[in-house]
Amino acid sequence: MISSLRKRHRIHWVALGILLSVGFVAALRVHPPKPVQESILSELPEAYPTILKEVENENLKINLREDKQNRHQLELLLKKPVKLPAPLLYLNITGELNPQGNTLLAPLGAVGLYRFQIFDENIQGIFFYSPLNGKTAYPTKLK
Amino acid sequence: MSVGYKPVLWNRQKRMYDFVILGAILVYCVIFIGLNVVYHPEIAPSTLIIRTTATLAVLMLHIILCIGPLARIDRRFLPLLYNRRHLGVSMFLVAAFHGIFSLFWFHGSGNVNPLFSLFTSNLQYHSFVDFPFQTLGFVALLILFMMAASSHDFWLKNLDPKVWKTLHMLVYWAYALVIMHVMLGAYQMEQSPVLSSMLGVGLMVIITLHLVAGFKEGRKDHQRHQFIENGFVKVAALDEIPENRAKIVHIGKESIAVFKYDHKLSAISNICKHQNGPLGEGKIVDGCITCPWHGYQYLPHNGSSPPPFTEKVATYQVLLIDQVVYVDPKPFPEGTAVEPVMIYG
What is the pLDDT of residues B199-252, one digit of tens each? Predict the structure, then answer.
């Protein structure tokens, strides 16, 4: 290399040494805010203390609960996802597996634990219903 | 050096060198992919391709950037310098594969041109941490492309040395862009301490090597020389100059390479006519001083390229007194024949 070229190299590397070191350390210290996934479900209410009825099968478990003010609560533990498009959870009041006359509790189909305060009397059970294809799944009687 | 323009002047050494490069690339890919398949079986094939080519290109760039200063610090690394161009082009091909694959993987499924998408999908150019890191990689790849393309004999011959050298010094800035491309991209997504540690060590090594080599050579420009009568300057003891190699001295504005070969001593300008390459870092091949950068050749006794080539560099008078080599820093006109000094005993 000629003298002027060596000088250019030195200038480049002094500049790069400073800039790259600063950039590297800055990138180590400054992290972008992580995207936070907000829960799309409301917080789970406390379970009522007394279990009146209990049903369990391979797909789900249901507890009918009661508190001291005689209010009722349906506790559902869904073990397997509901294989229906856009499934809706219904309380079975009429004994028929269709929406008419029965009470819609929530649109859900994912595995998890859910609790709902219920006001209906004569609950016979639950079932899932898809308004898209009219099919039902996991019909379960509360004995 | 060739009469016609040929992309690569193949010889046995270059074939071996390229074979080693290809083998090393394949071994790296097998090891990297194998380790990922074992320890991260959930990794998608596309991610694996992007990561393999990215890490390989960054590793190759580090090796390439180490070669220059290492050769200036210790002559034993000089052989690595001779075929650095092939390593550079290989690195560009790996980087290009990474860039093009990523471009079409991340930007190719929309209804706009992938390049347009690359520059417009993230417009946070005002933010450091959210800076569109992909554009940094794109600009770095563009520089590497220009370098790889200008490695061709046509450009070597026709680009002015100043333009060519300026273009090739952009590799330093391409390196800076690559470092920030990784730190603002892959690192921010995973914040892997392994990634940042390895990159940090690489960065430290590169900066240190270049600064050490730069300041070591800078001292040569300011060193004091021992003059004797009639203007001759002491170069070195005879046994300090290896056979078929040179000792370089910088005297005023002159940079002189004194070569020892076939029991003779000759001195020519250290600066190649082609792209200002350091002739004194080359060696004598087939009786000709061979520039380590692009293989331009000169006869040691007259500084002229062998026919049909016409390049000429200045020559200098050499003296040998009591096993000490001296040179007169006054140059003869380029191509002037000077009787070599014979070494007896």
Answer: 999 999 999 999 999 888 777 666 666 667 678 888 889 999 999 999 988 887
CB contact under 8 A, B176 and A16: yes
pLDDT at A86: 93
Residue B264 bridge partners (DSSP): B261, B342
The answer to whether the Cβ–Cβ distance between B129 and A30 falls below 8 Å is yes
pLDDT of B30 above 90: yes
Considering only CB atoms, which chain A residues are within 8 Å of B255? 2-3
User: Which residues in chain B are contacts of A32 at CB distance < 8 A?
Assistant: 129-130, 188
Distances (CA, A) of A101 to A94, A107, A130, B170, B307: 6, 17, 16, 76, 104
Print the SS3 string covering B222-259.
Answer: CCCCCECHHHCEEEEEHHHCCCCEEEEEEECCEEEEEE
A3 vs B: CB within 8 A: yes
Q: Please tell me the distance from the alpha carbon of residue A138 to that of residue A90, in angstroms, as a whole number.
A: 11
Contact A30 B179 (CB under 8 A): no
Closest CA in chain A for residue B184: A27
Cβ–Cβ below 8 Å for A20 and B179: yes
Q: What kind and span of H or E run contains B270? A: none
Give the DSSP H or E segment for B163: helix B161-184
Structure confidence at residue B79 as a pLDDT band (50, 70, 90): confident
With an 8 Å Cβ cutoff, are A24 and B176 in contact? no
Which of B44 and B8 is assigned the larger pLDDT? B44
Closest by CA position to A47, among listed A28, A72, A16, A30: A72
Cβ neighbours of residue B287 closer than 8 Å, sequence gap 6 or more? B261, B299, B300
Looking from the CA of B175 toward its CB, the CA atoms found within 13 Å total 27
A25 close contact with B: CB closer than 8 A: no
Tell me how far apart the 2 most distant CA atoms of chain A are, in Å: 98
CA distance B102 to B140: 14
Q: For the whole prediction, is pTM greater than 0.80?
A: no
Q: Out of A104-108, B101-105, B275-279, pick the least confident.
A: B275-279
- B172's enclosing H/E stretch is helix B161-184
- pLDDT in the model for residue B110: 83
Can you give the pLDDT at residue B190? 79
pLDDT at B160: 72
3-class SS at B260?
strand
Mark B174-202 as b/e (b = at least 16 C-beta within 10 Å): bbbbbbbbbbbbbbbeeeeeebbeebbeb
What residue ranges in chain B does DSSP mark as E strands? 233-237, 245-251, 254-261, 264-269, 283-285, 288-290, 297-298, 315-316, 318-321, 324-327, 341-342
